[in-house]
Amino acid sequence: MNKVLISLMTLCLASFAQAADFGVEVGFRQQSGSVDSGLSAQSQMGYQVGAVGVFPISGALGVRTGLMYVNRPLVVKNDLTSAETKVSLNYFEVPVALSYAFEDYASVFGGVALSMHLDSNATNGAKVKDEKSPIIPLIVGASFKFAPQLGATLFFESGSGDVADGLKNYRAVGANLLISFE
Q: Under CATH, to which class is 2-180 assigned?
């Protein structure tokens, strides 16, 4: 499994050499979701890290894609007992979005992300069951640079449907630091 992941990452990094704009992103996401009745969900701060690139199509249009490691946490609270369980789902994600660049330093994007489930864990002896993979959330966002090789990406992600048994409709809003290699 590790050899496959290393090969996939090497292939992605090699293809990013052809991108008009290539960078590394690392950031945080405020993750929320829905749970079955009798339970309530509390949003949690997660993280993500990976590489992104924009491949030009025509003029200001491009395809924004990459490979990200994404952490999607949530706290599930039992409404009767008030017991809390922290749930964490981890994914490799390949976002594919149409990007429109206003200038060299500002763009907006929208598309989907193909998220492949890696692992999950839960506290208090609970187990996450029947994790769905892949999940395909919708993403919209904006990316801008405040220095030639330093910028930020702001995004909203919305997925409908089950993520795992009893967990559904995951949503996130986040911000990533972008280090660009042009």
A: mainly beta
Q: How far apart are alpha carbons 136 and 128 in whole angstroms?
A: 19
Structure tokens at 125: 């002896």
10 Å Cβ neighbour count for 172? Answer: 22
122 phi/psi in degrees, rounded to 5? -145, 150
* Domain spans in the chain, listed from the N-terminal domain onward: 2-180
CA distance 39 to 167: 10
Angle at 1 between CA 121 and CA 124, to 5 degrees: 10
- The CA distance from 40 to 102, in Å, is 41
Which residue intervals of 51-136 are DSSP H helices?
none
User: Which positions ≥6 away from 169 have C-beta within 8 Å?
Assistant: 33, 34, 159, 160, 161
**pLDDT digit string, tens, across residues 51-65:** 999 999 988 999 999
